[in-house]
């Protein structure tokens, strides 16, 4: 007997942001994210509380993917940050912290939210114009003919996540490898539509980081093939190895119809008929002079035996993630049926070898033209390996974004503070007609701009996790860090050595001010100057595209959340 | 989702690490004391003597414990040795870091100085590495010395024969006042139970479930004629008057004696020409004598083989172990081929096979009707109908049985090695037809037989064709060293071999069931030590030399950091977020890094009973450090002391001036990696400021008594 229940009416919550629980949750989330930020950030242990895998991380992507939050406002925030991360990989924490901070600062302003939104949009356009202009002081152009800037970019990504547990030597080793892997994925003959190849990360957990390496081509793990004997591969007339790529299971199980039953007579074995079909495929493969068969799923042992007897190498369980690069690399089309085999699907390879790494055995597929490579990534334990993998993927992605737009932003909080000082300067020098366009007063504009700048500066401040002071200088607008344990009256120039990004040294007399705790007094300063020398060996750099997008996403999400007047919850 | 702040000043994660590691203190060094782990719910107990087994049997629901487990398992998987060192240093460094936090040292300073310090030490100790070749030479030059002890050692027993150092100690202990030993072990016990209490209380303090598995104190095990445990050696002497132990003890001794003599008249007759690995095995064994004999025998076998082919000196992949419970430990030996246990019914088949060359089949799955290869999904919606039922056809299962048997008979297969399990009915039918089927054979063994018999492994019997079946295998009952076949009641050991098979089985024996696992673990540890030493092609000077050099190196670094001239030098390092505050605290943090090794040395000395207390051991370490500093070149001093063999010995007493040549070597990579892994774990936990508990635990946590510790999102 079924019981019918009356539908509950939906729950309306008006002005959700004014609720205590929301602001508490928001500030808790903001606290968690701020504590994660930067190379000295604190780590979070994510686990289910009953034993089992513990994820130690300070990455927004790892935290957000495991976090389940109850409130819709937090969900909106997380969804837009995750969306940003899926597109750019980098600057997730920046986006989230900035967004939280903007909401907090704008909410305390006591100005109608529609006005705040209008002004903040104007501020964003000022920022974007500045970042895209040649005069931008926190921007570097990346020269792809020299490695140094690229290495700085990769190194900054690697060092920003302490849970990878890398020392300096290991960072250098990995940065070189990642760059090398990236170079492999850039096609050497560029036609009109250049497509970047792919770098596949092969996990080898338990080894030292410096044991990591990059190989051109693809590695498929094959526990059965031991490296004792070199492979003998059948080659076609042009000395190439013909390869057939299957994405359908060849394990000999039946196609599984969703519903209904099949009735067979006793004595008829469906398994046998399926196997016969497989063996027919095998025969055709042998006739077509195939040297290597790769299957995404499992190959039936009988078919494997048949292929082996005919000197065809069979590799199964390649996995879904390898299919696309495999087909890109070999020029073959994945075969999705064992009933229709078209010779046009076959691809070719230059060589096939057996490689052993640690205790694992791999088949190494070497293509003619390498746009696909394998990064064998080692780290000592599981949790650090997982973090390192995410970081390497981010670094690889950052390089891809950078080749499209060869620019980088200064890291270490310098872009944030410089942008803030630029906005402070700019907002003072706007004409009345500007305010008319936005439909606000100068005071309102100044207040919102101040909130915006403080939000940016609070992101820079989040880099600091031990007691200490964060400063900004009034010449370049960069970010400086003073370790704890000094009285705040002492002369700053004795204490600071280099700015956050590492471009400015403490050589000239830059007048410093504290970043925090200056809310009352208006700061009058000129437009931040560009540093005179823009080349230094060890700079902290951020991905230009990712940071620009992060800035936009943060502001737009904050505006969206500020604009929410009702939450309607379906309670059924 | 729940969120818990890990209190910064009194870091919970670090406290958890340090209390978990406390349990492993007595597992450090060559003289380990075994532990009984008692499960309170089932009253089952296990005897453990290694950090891996300890961690396996502890309750590790806390996140830090889980990470510790992961780290130790990773070390075990990679090296098979160094886990106790790792566990100990995790504890010592956790404590040291907690102390730094108490002194308000910023986290980033601890992280950067400690990891730099360890790096620097790892570079510094490279001067204590020597190549395998040099190590062998050095060892051989003193190989004849143990002969001197032959006569005097008879009364003590076998262990001391192979380790004169231990023998000397035992003798000293016996000649000392009788009260000394009980008092010593008594306060030791007390200390350990205190530790356990602390472990339990601190764990329950965190709201963890500590009651499930509890390490129930530590017990010396006098009834086990333990190799390496001093007190038990003494006890054994007393027990020789017992009718239960006297015969065992004697046979034990005589066989060792025989072996010992054999080994001396064998390859080591001329010490200068000995480039074998016998001495290296001994120097790496760290007091684990049962394994020494076995490994030396393996090395001899493999070297003999290597003269015919060009394989390496020691191949760990060609070794398997077979544990025989119920035979005295002196029966442990190496048998060429594959030794395994079969049922008496299967053993009857073997009698037909004696001295015959057999046709062999290898199967890489299960041998059952239901078995399908991995990745095969069984169709669920297929219905079979039978149109003309006839009683003659019998049951489907019988059909399968007879078909399989038919296949085996038609290919004249005598022996089937199966990776998985074997259908019992088929097994019976095979026995009736004189076919020996053995299940649960590892992939390596299958592979080895495949290589020499040219058998190709199949998954189903229906796949079989003539080229898959190999030939030339031989099966016989396994015979103990005295030439007798052994019947252990329910199971019979058999030996399978084939012409030219490189496979060697280490047959491990004991009469004490709870010791079996322990003996197997110890064997593999020694085997891996040798394997890695040969892989690294170098070894560290052992016996605390490396740790001592680290200590003196850190002392020097700390002194340097205090000199004003160097204060600015570090500022050159790039990342201001990481290193700005580091210089101020460098000295403090380096001291805490050093304290890890210092505790390590003193606990090893204490466990070896080289010092009456850890404090005394500490003083002795300090004494060495002072001398090393006075000497000007610490590494030269340590090298000299190592040659004299007086490192890690009490600074007074008869041992100090008894310049005994017993060299000890350590693995290079395993040791430095254990350090690095330990420090990485501590720093990883140190940098963690919050636990985020995901999944369905939310409501449970909300209602639990610790809910105030959590914040909910």
UniProtKB/TrEMBL annotation, chain A:
GO cellular component terms given for this protein: centrosome; cytosol; kinociliary basal body; nucleus
GO molecular function annotation: ATP binding; unfolded protein binding
Locations listed in the record: Cytoplasm, Cytoskeleton, Microtubule organizing center, Centrosome; Cytoplasm, Cytosol; Nucleus
A Pfam family reported for this protein in Swiss-Prot or TrEMBL: Cpn60_TCP1
Main location: cytoplasm
Record keywords: ATP-binding, Chaperone, Cytoplasm, Cytoskeleton, Nucleotide-binding, Nucleus
InterPro entries named among the record's database cross-references: Cpn60/GroEL/TCP-1, GroEL-like_apical_dom_sf, GROEL-like_equatorial_sf, MKKS, TCP-1-like_intermed_sf
Superkingdom, natural source: Eukaryota
Quaternary state and interactors: Component of a complex composed at least of MKKS, BBS10, BBS12, TCP1, CCT2, CCT3, CCT4, CCT5 and CCT8. Interacts with STUB1. Interacts with BBS2 (via coiled coil domain). Interacts with CCDC28B. Interacts with BBS12. Interacts with SMARCC1, a component of the SWI/SNF complexes; the interaction takes place predominantly in the cytoplasm and may modulate SMARCC1 location. Interacts with DLEC1.
UniProt family annotation: Belongs to the TCP-1 chaperonin family.
Record's protein name: Molecular chaperone MKKS
Organism per entry: Calidris pygmaea (Spoon-billed sandpiper)
TrEMBL record, chain B:
GO biological process, one term: photoreceptor cell maintenance
Entries under Gene3D superfamilies matching the protein: GroEL, GroEL-like equatorial domain, TCP-1-like chaperonin intermediate domain
InterPro entries, per the entry: BBS12 (IPR042984), Cpn60/GroEL/TCP-1 (IPR002423), GroEL-like_apical_dom_sf (IPR027409), GROEL-like_equatorial_sf (IPR027413), TCP-1-like_intermed_sf (IPR027410)
Annotated GO MF terms: ATP binding
PANTHER family found in the cross-reference section: BARDET-BIEDL SYNDROME 12 PROTEIN
Name of this protein: Bardet-Biedl syndrome 12
């Amino acid at each position: 007997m079924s019981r019918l229940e009356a539908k509950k009416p939906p729950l309306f919550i008006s002005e959700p942001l004014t609720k205590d629980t929301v602001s508490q949750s928001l500030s808790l989330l903001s606290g968690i994210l701020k504590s994660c930020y930067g190379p000295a950030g604190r780590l979070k242990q994510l686990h289910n509380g009953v034993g089992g895998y513990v994820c130690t991380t300070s990455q927004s992507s790892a935290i957000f993917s495991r976090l389940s939050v109850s409130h819709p406002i937090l969900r909106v925030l997380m969804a837009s940050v995750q969306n940003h991360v899926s597109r750019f990989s980098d600057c997730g924490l920046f986006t989230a912290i900035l967004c939280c901070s903007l909401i907090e600062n704008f909410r305390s302003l006591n100005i109608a939210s529609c006005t705040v939104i209008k002004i903040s949009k104007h501020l964003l356009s000022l920022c974007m114009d500045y970042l895209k202009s040649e005069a931008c002081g926190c921007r570097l152009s990346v020269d792809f003919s020299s490695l140094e800037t690229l290495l700085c970019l990769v190194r900054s990504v690697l060092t920003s996540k302490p849970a990878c547990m890398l020392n300096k030597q290991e960072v250098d080793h990995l940065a070189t490898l990642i760059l090398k892997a990236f170079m492999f994925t850039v096609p050497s003959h560029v036609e009109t539509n250049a497509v970047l190849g792919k770098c596949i990360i092969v996990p080898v957990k338990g080894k030292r980081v410096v044991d990591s390496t990059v190989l051109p081509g693809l590695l498929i793990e094959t526990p059965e093939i031991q490296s004792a004997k070199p492979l003998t591969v059948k080659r076609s007339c042009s000395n190439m190895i013909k390869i057939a790529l299957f994405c359908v299971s060849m394990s000999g199980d039946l196609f599984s119809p969703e519903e209904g039953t099949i009735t067979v007579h006793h004595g008829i074995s469906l398994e046998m008929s399926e196997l016969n079909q497989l063996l027919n495929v095998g025969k055709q493969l042998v006739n077509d002079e195939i040297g290597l068969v790769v299957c995404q799923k499992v190959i039936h042992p009988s078919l494997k035996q048949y292929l082996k007897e005919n000197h065809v190498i069979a590799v199964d369980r390649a996995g879904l993630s390898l299919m696309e690069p495999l087909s890109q690399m070999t020029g073959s089309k994945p075969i999705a049926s064992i009933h229709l085999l078209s010779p046009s699907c076959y691809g070719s390879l230059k060589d096939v070898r057996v490689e052993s790494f640690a205790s694992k055995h791999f088949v190494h597929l070497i293509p003619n033209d390498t746009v696909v490579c394998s990064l064998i990534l080692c780290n000592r334990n599981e949790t650090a390996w997982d973090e390192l993998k995410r970081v390497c993927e981010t670094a690889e992605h950052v390089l891809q974004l950078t080749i499209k737009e060869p620019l980088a932003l200064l890291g270490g909080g310098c872009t944030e503070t410089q942008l803030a000082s630029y906005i402070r300067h700019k907002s003072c020098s706007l004409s009345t007609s500007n305010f008319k366009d936005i439909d606000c007063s100068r005071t309102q504009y100044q207040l919102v701009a101040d909130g915006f700048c403080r939000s940016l500066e609070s992101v820079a401040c989040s880099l600091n996790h031990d007691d200490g002071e964060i400063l900004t200088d009034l010449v370049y607008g960069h970010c400086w860090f003073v370790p704890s344990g000094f009285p705040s009256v002492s002369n700053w120039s004795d204490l600071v050595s280099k700015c956050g990004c590492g471009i400015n040294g403490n050589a000239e007399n830059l007048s410093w001010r504290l970043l925090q705790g200056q809310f009352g007094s208006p700061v009058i300063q000129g437009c931040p100057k560009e540093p005179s020398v823009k080349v230094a060996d060890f700079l902290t750099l951020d991905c230009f595209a990712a940071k620009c997008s992060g800035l936009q996403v943060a502001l737009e999400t904050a505006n969206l959340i500020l604009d929410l007047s009702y939450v309607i919850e379906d309670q059924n | 989702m729940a969120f818990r702040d890990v209190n910064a000043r009194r870091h919970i994660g670090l406290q958890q690490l340090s209390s978990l590691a406390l349990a492993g203190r007595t597992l450090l060094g060559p003289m380990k004391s075994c532990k009984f782990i008692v499960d309170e719910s089932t009253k089952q107990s296990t005897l453990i003597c290694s950090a891996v087994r300890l961690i396996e049997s502890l309750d590790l629901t806390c996140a830090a414990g889980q990470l510790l487990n992961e780290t130790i398992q990773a070390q075990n998987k990679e090296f098979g040795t160094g886990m106790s060192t790792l566990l100990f240093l995790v504890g010592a460094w956790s404590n040291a870091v907690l102390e730094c936090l108490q002194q308000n040292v910023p986290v980033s300073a601890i992280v950067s100085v400690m990891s730099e310090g360890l790096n620097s030490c790892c570079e510094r100790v490279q001067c204590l590495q020597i190549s395998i070749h040099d190590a062998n030479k050095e060892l051989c030059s003193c190989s004849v010395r143990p002969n001197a002890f032959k006569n005097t050692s008879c009364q003590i027993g076998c262990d001391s024969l192979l380790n004169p150092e231990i023998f000397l100690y035992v003798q000293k202990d016996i000649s000392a006042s009788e009260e000394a030993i009980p008092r010593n072990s008594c306060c030791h016990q007390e200390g350990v139970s205190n530790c356990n209490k602390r472990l339990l209380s601190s764990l329950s303090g965190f709201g963890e479930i500590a009651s499930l598995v509890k390490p129930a104190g530590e017990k010396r095990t006098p009834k086990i004629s333990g190799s390496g445990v001093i007190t038990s050696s003494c006890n054994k002497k007393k027990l020789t008057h017992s009718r239960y132990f006297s015969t065992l003890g004697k046979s034990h001794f005589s066989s060792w004696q025989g072996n010992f003599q054999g080994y001396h008249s064998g390859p080591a007759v001329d010490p200068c020409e000995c480039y074998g690995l016998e001495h290296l095995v001994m120097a790496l064994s760290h007091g684990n004598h049962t394994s020494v004999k076995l490994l030396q025998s393996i090395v001899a076998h493999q070297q003999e083989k290597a003269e015919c082919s060009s394989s390496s000196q020691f191949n760990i992949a060609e070794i398997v172990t077979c544990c025989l419970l119920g035979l005295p430990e002196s029966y442990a030996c190496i048998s060429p081929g594959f030794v395994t246990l079969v049922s008496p019914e299967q053993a009857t088949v073997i009698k037909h096979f004696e001295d015959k060359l057999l046709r062999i089949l290898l199967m890489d799955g299960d041998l059952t009707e239901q078995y399908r290869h991995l990745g095969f999904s069984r169709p669920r919606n297929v219905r079979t109908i039978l149109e003309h039922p006839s009683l003659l056809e019998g049951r489907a299962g019988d059909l399968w049985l007879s078909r399989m048997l038919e296949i085996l008979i038609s290919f004249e297969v005598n022996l089937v090695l199966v990776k998985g399990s074997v259908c019992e009915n088929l097994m019976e039918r095979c026995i009736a037809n004189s076919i020996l089927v053995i299940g649960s054979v590892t992939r390596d063994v299958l592979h080895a037989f495949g290589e020499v018999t040219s058998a190709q492994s199949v998954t189903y019997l229906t796949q079989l064709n003539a080229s898959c079946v190999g030939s030339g295998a031989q099966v016989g009952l396994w015979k103990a060293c005295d030439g007798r076949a052994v019947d252990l009641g329910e199971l019979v050991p058999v030996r399978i071999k084939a012409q030219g098979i490189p496979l060697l089985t280490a047959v491990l024996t004991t009469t004490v069931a709870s010791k079996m696992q322990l003996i197997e673990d110890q064997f593999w540890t020694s085997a891996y030590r040798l394997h890695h030493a040969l892989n690294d092609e170098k070894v560290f000077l052992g016996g605390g030399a490396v740790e001592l050099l680290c200590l003196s190196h850190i002392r020097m670094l700390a002194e340097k950091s205090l000199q004003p001239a160097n204060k600015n030098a570090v500022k050159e390092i790039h990342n201001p977020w990481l290193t700005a505050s580091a210089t101020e605290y460098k000295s403090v943090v380096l001291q805490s890094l050093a304290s890890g090794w210092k505790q390590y040395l003193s606990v090893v000395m204490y466990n070896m009973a080289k010092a009456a207390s850890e404090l005394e051991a500490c003083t002795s370490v300090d004494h060495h450090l002072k001398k090393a500093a006075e000497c000007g070149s610490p590494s030269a001093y340590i090298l000299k002391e190592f040659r004299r063999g007086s490192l890690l010995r009490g600074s007074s007493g008869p041992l100090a001036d008894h310049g005994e040549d017993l060299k000890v070597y350590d693995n290079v990579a395993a040791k430095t990696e254990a350090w690095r892994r330990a420090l990485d774990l501590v720093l990883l936990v140190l940098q963690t400021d919050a636990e985020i508990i995901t999944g369905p635990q939310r409501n449970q946590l909300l209602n639990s008594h610790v809910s105030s510790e959590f914040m909910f999102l």
